[in-house]
Design brief:
mainly alpha; two-stranded antiparallel sheet; 70% helix
């Protein structure tokens, strides 16, 4: 059976009426009914319940929260936080500088420098930071006197102060990781850039400084920021070499006031604040160096909030219309 065809001529009155009727009839609005996600509601209720239970447990525990507030800005705690920031910044600067040097040595065609760089990275990545700190702290057991002929001579105990042990232990360990990060960044630059620089008469060193490293920063910067944030937390290990940083300062107060847990909470709050501040800085630094690789930069958190608020305010009522 075949369908009946409308053989009415378009110019006839009947055809004109049907065309005008079809043109004037507006389509009906489409009402979009969202799909119900029951699992999301259940998981959300479970998570909120667990958080409430955790808060309630800490509120009923034997914790002197007033002591946390009183000691949060204690002069000893603030000074310890300042020393933590100081040792982290200095160790990171030395680690980055030495890491760049080791990365260039690792990529060198000279087998001696390449092998030495590989051996350094192998050793410092293969041993824990805590062990390296103890090695520097007890170095006087092997070398009682530091004697550099015609330059310097002194007792090793006077040279290896807690600050120097902490600085060397953190910086030399960080250099091994930064060397691998810098090596990956250098290798990410196309070899044609180096060849073009050599064709222009630039030396190997000038090519590395003016062409390769500036382009490699886009790859090096993000993990470097993450390494610094990790350095802020790793600096707590210098407690072992009696350097009076944040954790040691709070522990000394806790041992004399018997508020051990409260002072650990104080130290945790300071670590969270410092890492959060530098995480924001890392985000905007990564965003700046991403300008050369992205057509349009991603929205910042504040821009996303404004977009979501604007979309929520302009949302039509009564469903979605076609």
């Amino acid at each position: 059976m075949t369908d009946k065809l409308d053989k009415t001529p378009p110019g006839s009155p009947v055809g004109q009426a049907s065309v005008s009727k079809a043109a004037t009839t507006a389509p009906e609005n489409i009402k979009a009914i969202p799909v119900r996600h029951v699992g999301r509601w259940i998981s959300g209720v479970v998570v909120i319940g667990l958080l409430v239970a955790l808060v309630y447990a800490f509120s009923q525990g034997n914790i002197q929260w007033q002591a946390v507030g009183d000691k949060l800005f204690d002069s000893t705690v603030v000074a310890g936080a300042g020393r933590t920031l100081l040792i982290s910044v200095l160790a990171m600067i030395l680690g980055v500088i030495l890491g760049v040097v080791l990365a260039v040595m690792r990529l060198s065609k000279n087998p001696v420098t390449s092998w030495v760089a590989w051996l350094y990275i192998w050793f410092f990545r293969g041993t824990p930071v805590y062990v390296q700190l103890l090695l520097w702290f007890n170095l006087a057991l092997i070398f009682p006197v530091l004697n550099i002929p015609f330059i310097y001579k002194d007792e090793m105990t006077d040279v290896m102060t807690p600050f120097m042990c902490a600085l060397l232990g953190l910086a030399l360990n960080e250099a091994a990781y930064m060397a691998e990060i810098c090596r990956a960044g250098i290798q990410s630059v196309d070899e044609g850039q180096t060849e073009a620089s050599h064709a222009l008469g630039m030396t190997q060193g000038k090519t590395m400084r003016r062409v390769v490293l500036p382009q490699a920063l886009r790859v090096i910067i993000p993990p470097t920021g993450n390494e610094f944030i990790n350095m802020l937390k790793t600096s707590s290990l210098v407690y072992a070499v009696t350097y009076n940083e944040l954790l040691r300062s709070t522990s000394q107060i806790g041992s004399t006031s018997y508020a051990v847990m409260e002072m650990l909470f104080v130290a945790s709050i300071w670590y969270i604040v410092m890492t959060s501040v530098f995480s924001v800085g890392q985000y905007y630094l990564e965003r700046r160096y991403a300008r050369g690789s992205l057509r349009s930069l991603p929205l910042t958190p504040w821009q996303r909030v404004k977009v979501n608020l604007a979309a929520f305010g302009n949302r039509p009522s009564g469903g979605v219309s076609a």
